[in-house]
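EI: anyone free to look at a 340-residue chain?
SC: sure, send it
EI:
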Amino acid sequence: MASDLGSLTDVAGLRVGHYERSNRSWRTGTTVVLADQPVTAGVDIRGGGPGTRETDALSPMNLVEKIDAVCLTGGSAFGLRSADGVVDELADRGRGFRVGPEDHHVVPVVPAAVIFDLGRGGHFRHHPDPDFGRRAIKKASRTERRRGSIGAGTGAIAGGLAGGVGMASATIQLADQHGELVAVTVAALCVVNARGSLINPATGRPWEPHPAIKTPTSKDRNTLAEHLNNIAAPSLNTTIGVIATDARLDRAEVTRLAMNTHDGLSRSIRPVHTLADGDTMFSMATGAISLNVDERAVALSNLCAVAADVTALACVDAVIHATPMPNVPSYTSLCPSALK
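SC: here you go
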């Protein structure tokens, strides 16, 4: 199996939880990113067919300053109901936007985005509901590092191959509020269900280099090419995800971070942002590290560059770790020689 490039939970204060059903009539799931404390968040949507919830609340021009969780899910528009379960669970915990004096006077704001995976388990109306969201948030853990065909990526397909959940993280040295260099973490979690391909058919390798992948044998490349050439028709798709950092960013800055993740999508997925994709990337900043005011513009530019890098790696990571479906092979099942 491919190496671990890091996890979204490498950003201290974030938890990831997955819940899925995969059997003869189900192949879908939900992934929740839960913050220990409210975080500043943003979003950027580039695909032509998005399915989202509460994204307007993240605008720097609107009221809600911080959120507690993001919900990523299968089920297309039906799957948006999984966010109801996340909202209910947060409300039970007294977390959300406060609207009154009592502890339970809260309205949780849970932005959500969906991928199209309807019918991939054999039954078109089997899709996530509020129970999926509640189960996923209850499973949220600071140590979650699994990837592949889990959670929201259970029924994902990317360019005719099995897709899934991928993650990557990196650290960058930036000056803090005292002028001292500190390690700032940037991490991505992507649910890859793209219409475009992540694999270069000429080389049999991902478009974006991955440290666990080498050039496969000519036999495996031919097998891959034959499969890609025989795909009858493209499916409805979407890539969604979360980019996170422990830097303290305002809402405009964290939105800029989300915008730059699409550079990573474009490097790893070809084509990307089609009318049949609903590509949506959320961003979260925990605020643990205050950046130096005098060097803030440069620091933000560097953070955005790293955000693109880890997003591109997370997308490839998803395809590398995916497992085959009954009628859709995975990349590694066609090209086992590509794994180092």
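EI: The mean pLDDT is 95.
SC: 👍
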